[in-house]
Design brief:
Elements lengths: L2 H9 L3 H12 L19 H14 L6 H12 L9 H18 L12 E3 L1 H34 L8 H27 L18 E3 H10 L4 H21 L2 H14 L2 E3 L1 H9 L6 H11 L3 E3 L1 H28 L6 H13 L3 H10 L8 H15 L1 H5 L11 H5 L4 H26 L1
Helix pairs in contact: 2-11, 3-7, 3-12, 4-6, 4-7, 5-9, 6-7, 6-10, 7-15, 9-13, 10-13, 13-16
């Protein structure tokens, strides 16, 4: 087969070529076989491109920012019934948090002044949107940019004059798609979360309990409802106290997300498959292709390192709160059963959690929760509560993989690290003095 024949055969199998051929067809081009561009360049109405993509976006039934779309979608996905917060439920939440506050004062100096609240599932889902979108936005932006760049690199010359308008539409559409997927995940997850920090991230501004889910969990786990509510209130308040008392921690988490996002790559083969499946006669199917295929991140080696760092951070937050809440809840008869049930529950992932993980390319399950709890328990028993809490005094003090593997060596390793840094600072000081 000649090169010319090979090129001719392969052109019909190129999904991007097929897509642009389809767009030419929509614009009224004649004389070209499907998947082939007419010779000589045929005038195309640039507005047609925006119209085509706009039709797809319109079929999603939503428009606006990623947060707006996420909220709209989340509301439609919240499991029903979603009981309102009655006065009785609100009093129960208030009493649980008040008791948790008193008990936590005995075991840690970390505190928070934000007023706790009782939320419905809808309240949690819609209230969580901005926090999740903010954390995930760097990932969405990088993937959208990579997607558009990939498209631009392969666009035929005839289409290049219209690339700017097409890029703007693709950016808006990708934000809507991303928001819709986040909203769908949050809406579904609202049926199972117990607190505002179930994922160990600073998403909501104030401590919160989702009372209808706590009632369901207590029945499912065969635990006393009141004791479970008090225990999870302690866990929730402990995490908010940690974030409030270590302001750098929230920024550190966002930086880790951004670092991961900068190393995310788009699966170009997946894009090709998606483009090849778009049928202008069935835009509903095209919408589903875009929903399911546009955001499938592929991590790099640097991205994997950032993912490992995030896993350690969320495990450290979860492990610290686990230890502190357990100590605080000594008066509860079922504290051991509740602690173990919550640990098992934390490491189990639902379909919605899997969907959210696939969307952002990160599994935020604190897989090393038990190891982190063992580290904090050891520090507390050997050096006191101050040593346990001092792990969050600075990013350099956060547990490394080696620390989680070998908690007993934490103090020695970090003392040596601090000494090395002091020696380097001293050497630099002397060098500067000699030069001056």
């Amino acid at each position: 087969m000649s090169d010319k024949d090979r090129d001719k055969d392969s052109s019909g199998d190129d999904p991007l070529n097929n897509l642009f051929g389809m767009l030419f067809s929509l614009g009224g081009a004649q004389g070209g076989a499907q998947g082939q561009f007419p010779a000589g360049g045929i005038p195309i109405d640039g507005n047609m491109l925006s119209s085509f993509l706009g039709q797809i976006q319109g079929l999603m039934g939503q428009s606006g920012s990623a947060s707006d779309v996420a909220r709209q979608t989340a509301v439609s996905k919240v499991p029903t019934p979603d009981p309102s917060v009655t006065d009785e439920v609100a009093r129960g939440t208030h009493d649980a948090f008040r008791l948790a506050e008193l008990w936590l004062e005995r075991v840690t100096e970390f505190t928070t002044t934000n007023e706790p609240q009782s939320l419905t599932r809808k309240d949690w889902a819609t209230g969580s949107v901005d926090g999740w979108v903010e954390l995930a936005q760097p990932i969405q932006a990088n993937m959208s940019r990579t997607f558009t760049d990939s498209l631009s690199d392969q666009i035929p010359e005839e289409m290049r004059p219209f690339m700017s308008s097409m890029s703007a539409m693709m950016t808006n559409m990708s934000a809507s798609l991303f928001g819709a997927q986040i909203g769908e995940a949050l809406g579904t997850l609202s049926g199972s979360v117990l607190t505002g920090t179930d994922y160990n991230l600073p998403i909501l501004d104030a401590p919160a309990l989702i009372e209808s889910n706590i009632a369901g969990a207590s029945a499912e786990l065969d635990l006393d409802h009141t004791q479970l509510r008090i225990f999870v209130a302690c866990v929730e308040l402990a995490k908010h106290s940690l974030f409030a008392s270590t302001p750098w921690l929230a920024g550190h988490i966002r930086t880790a997300f951004a670092k991961y996002a900068s190393n995310v790559e788009v699966d170009s083969s997946n894009i090709h498959d998606m483009m090849g499946n778009i049928d202008p006669q069935n835009l509903h199917a095209a919408t589903e292709e875009l929903r399911n295929g546009m955001f499938k991140p592929v991590s790099t080696e640097e991205g994997e390192q950032a993912k490992e760092s995030l896993t350690r951070i969320v495990s450290a937050v979860a492990g610290w709160a686990d230890v502190v809440a357990y100590n605080a809840c000594e008066p509860l008869e079922q504290r051991d059963e509740i602690r173990e049930a919550l640990r098992r529950r934390t490491t189990m992932t639902s379909d919605s959690e899997d969907a959210l993980s696939q969307l952002i390319g990160l599994d935020l399950t604190p897989t090393r929760l038990r190891d982190a709890a063992a580290l904090f328990t050891y520090l507390e028993s050997s050096e006191g509560a101050e040593a346990r809490d001092a792990v969050f005094r600075h990013p350099d003090a956060l547990p490394t993989t080696a620390d989680l593997d070998d908690p007993l060596g934490y103090s020695e390793r970090h003392t040596e690290q601090a000494q090395t840094e002091d020696d380097m600072d001293e050497a630099l000081r002397r060098l500067l003095e000699e030069e001056s």
